[in-house]
Design brief:
- The complex is a heterodimer.
- By secondary structure, chain A is of the alpha/beta class.
- Chain A has one domain: Thiamin diphosphate (ThDP)-binding fold, Pyr/PP domains (Rossmann fold, 3-Layer(aba) Sandwich).
- In chain A, 36% of the residues lie in helices and 16% in strands.
- Chain A is built from 10 helices and 8 strands.
- In chain A, helix 2 crosses helix 7, helix 4 packs across helix 5 and helix 5 crosses helix 6.
- Chain B is of the alpha/beta class.
- Chain B folds into 2 domains: 180 residues, Thiamin diphosphate (ThDP)-binding fold, Pyr/PP domains (Rossmann fold); 110 residues, Rossmann fold.
- Helix content of chain B is 37%, strand content 19%.
- The longest helix of chain B has 18 residues.
- The mean pLDDT of chain B is 97.
- Classes of the chains: A alpha/beta, B alpha/beta.
- The interface between A and B is large, with 45 and 46 residues.
- Strand 2 of chain A pairs parallel with strand 9 of chain B, so a sheet runs across the interface.
Chain lengths: 276, 377
């Protein structure tokens, strides 16, 4: 297997191979992340990558930087503490859809609201892969999972709209099929000064695919290609059932970033004497 | 600046003690009866260049504090029972990642929402065992305004030295009492900083020293550590190898035993010839001391033993006292949690009797005297 030098440089060789199944999209997702970090010339000494629990959260074990594999759903508050304590470092948060939107859903909306300079990537395979394919808040209505054997009665979040309403100042969606677009958007997200959110679909042929008659990873990628509609804010195309927008969905530069506000506060407070 | 004595609320003394100990990060969520600590930190931390943040809940508060601690900051949160319950998950995470943190749990009365403004001591066992499976943690029980300061400083020293979660467990009444508190001058009290190795053998960031403590590097300081809640090797990565798992779990939990002397702190009075011992902690420990003196005046050979570090429990000293004392009275604002320790240490030959109150109020000296007289009849 030929590994390109920029990939090799960013991986902890001693922790490979990965635990991911054959056909899983997480290898592609990791390559997209590494491409973005490499092209931005991010210093791995000044990079902290934080994750929660699940297949996608295991990625931090493979990336050769400062990495924190937290408890289930808690990546964002841990990352918030790291960023507040060390505003000079880049903090990238990687979560799955169950981790980030179910058990960590409250943290997601509040971190968005705070507009703290984190880059947050939700890797969405529409299921809980690590525990073998249970229904998640991002499993579409009527789709099958090991805990929705008769079809999912619930509806998924409009995740990008949700974080936008909650206050995120950069929002994008892409898939692992759209490699160049995904790397470009992630670079923008990392460079954005504020809470940057990106949802990236990836295929889970082992569970989500198998339960939903999509066992072939290639077919699932083809599905991403066929259903993706490039978002153009000037003239948005109407979505057909099953389609989704990709691209930069929201970019707001009007809000102040939290750690900068805090730095100003410290400067002001340092000149004051407060009783007590 | 020389040391000075100030009239302070217990919660204020705790917050001032934290900043004195070098705490520069506080994440919290409002909850009675601990809120004054967060309020004080929100005013004072920015002045000293530290960070205060109010998070969305107690789960996020402890998570943010652990994140800050992993960068090298001394970090604290303050809460009460319901919030402390929410924090249990990440107490285990802090223990496993060797992240020094200090949690102040100002104890209210009762389970669930209970009696928010009532005082209690019902979280003694939760502080030890609340997070799942074996893990090291230390609990301290201040009984005075002065101890709110002193033991908060001590909590940071223990957390930094042993890289464990440390819980400070005042009762609501100690959090809210107003007393004279001596604030020492800088340098007067020992302030411990965590060890920061400048090199590691073969990227083994989690190798333990002879005291059982691992010293992984602060984030973004030139190393590339991997922190995980998974059981891990000295390299920091998960292994399912039974030998590695055994080494990790026993090594992690060896911290308390290997540092037992450092983790022993109690006060005692009239114990040398005592036949009747009052054993208690926190504010009831303080009342017990007074009751002991009253009993002595009445000719009872009474003594008082009050652990300030309540976990690990100072069993060695109590076992010595049990060589001559025959009756142990354990006053508590719960239904008998410290009593379990005392029974365990002194053995079935000795009489151990609890005086318990769970109505949100204090044990009065009169009630304690009456109950003890009944016992001694």
């Amino acid at each position: 297997m030929v590994v390109e030098p920029f990939v090799e440089k960013w991986l902890r060789q001693r922790t490979l191979p990965t635990i991911w199944c054959a056909g899983c999209g997480l290898g592609s997702a990791m390559r997209i992340i590494i491409r973005a970090l490499e092209e931005l010339e991010i210093d791995p000494d000044k990079l902290v990558v934080v994750s929660g629990i699940g297949c996608s959260s295991r990625m931090v074990g493979y990336i050769d930087a400062n990495t924190v594999h937290t408890t289930h759903g808690r990546a964002l508050p841990v990352a918030t503490g790291i960023k507040l304590a060390r505003p000079d470092v880049d903090v990238l948060v990687i979560m799955g859809d169950g981790d980030g939107t179910a058990i960590g859903g409250n943290h997601l909306i509040h971190a968005s609201r705070r507009n703290i300079n984190l880059t947050v990537l939700i890797l969405n395979n529409h299921t809980y892969g690590m525990t073998s394919g249970q229904v998640s808040p991002m499993t579409p209505h009527a789709k099958f999972a090991s805990t929705s054997p008769f079809g999912n009665l619930e509806y998924e979040f409009h995740l990008c709209d949700m974080v936008k309403s909650a206050g995120a100042t950069y929002v994008a969606r892409t898939t692992v099929y759209h490699f160049p677009q995904a790397a470009r958007l992630l670079k923008e997200a990392i460079q954005h000064d504020g809470f940057a959110f990106m949802e990236m679909f990836f295929q889970c042929p082992t569970y989500y695919g198998r339960f939903n008659a999509l066992t072939d990873a290639k077919d699932m990628l083809q599905g991403f290609k066929d259903s993706a509609v490039r978002y153009n804010p000037e003239n948005p195309l109407e979505l057909q059932p099953g389609e989704f927008y990709t691209g930069k969905l929201w970019h707001d530069t009007s809000r102040y970033e939290y750690t900068k506000l805090y730095k100003e506060l410290v400067e002001r407070a340092g000149k004051m004497t407060i009783a007590g | 600046m020389p040391g000075k004595t100030r009239l302070l609320q217990g919660n204020e003394a705790c917050a001032i003690g934290a900043i004195h100990a070098g705490c520069r990060f506080f994440a919290g969520y409002p909850i009675t009866p601990s809120t004054e600590i967060a309020e004080h930190m929100s005013r004072q931390l920015p002045v000293v260049g530290g960070v205060f943040i109010q998070m969305e809940d107690e789960i996020a508060s402890i998570a943010a504090m652990i994140g800050a601690s992993l960068t090298g900051k001394k970090a604290m949160t303050a809460t009460s029972g319901p919030g402390f319950s929410l924090m249990q998950e990440n107490i285990g995470y802090a223990a496993v990642t060797e992240a020094p943190i200090v949690i102040v749990n100002v104890m209210r009365s009762g389970s669930s929402t209970g009696h928010p403004t009532g005082t209690g001591q019902g979280d003694l066992m939760q502080a030890r065992w609340g997070s799942h499976s074996d893990h090291p943690s230390v609990s301290l029980a201040p009984g005075t305004g002065q101890e709110m300061f002193d033991l908060t400083v001590k909590a940071f020293n223990i957390a930094e030295k042993l890289r464990v979660p440390v819980v400070v467990l005042p009762e609501a009444v100690v959090g809210h009492i107003r007393e004279a508190v001596y604030i020492p001058a800088e340098g007067e009290m020992e302030i411990i900083q965590r060890e920061r190795p400048t090199e590691y053998e073969a990227l083994n960031f989690f190798e333990r020293d002879e005291r059982g403590v691992a010293h992984p590097p602060d984030l973004a300081t030139g190393f590339h550590p991997h922190y995980t809640g998974l059981s891990h090797t000295e390299g920091g990565f998960f292994s399912a190898d039974p030998d590695e798992l055994n080494k990790f779990n026993t090594g992690l939990c060896s911290k308390l035993e290997k540092n037992r002397e450092f983790l022993t702190d109690y006060s005692e009075e009239n114990t040398d010839d005592a036949e009747v011992m009052l054993v208690s902690f926190g504010v009831t420990g303080r009342a017990s001391l007074r009751v002991t003196r009253m009993l002595r005046e009445q000719g009872v050979k009474a003594g008082c033993f009050r652990p300030r570090i309540v976990w690990p429990f100072p069993d060695k000293r109590l076992r010595e006292i049990a060589e001559h004392a025959h009756t142990f009275i354990v006053p508590e604002l719960n239904l008998g949690q410290l009593r379990l320790d005392v029974e365990h240490v002194v053995g079935p030959e000795k009489r151990v009797v609890g005086i318990n109150r769970v109505d949100g109020t204090m044990l009065t000296l009169e009630r304690m005297m009456d109950e003890i007289k009944e016992v001694l009849k």
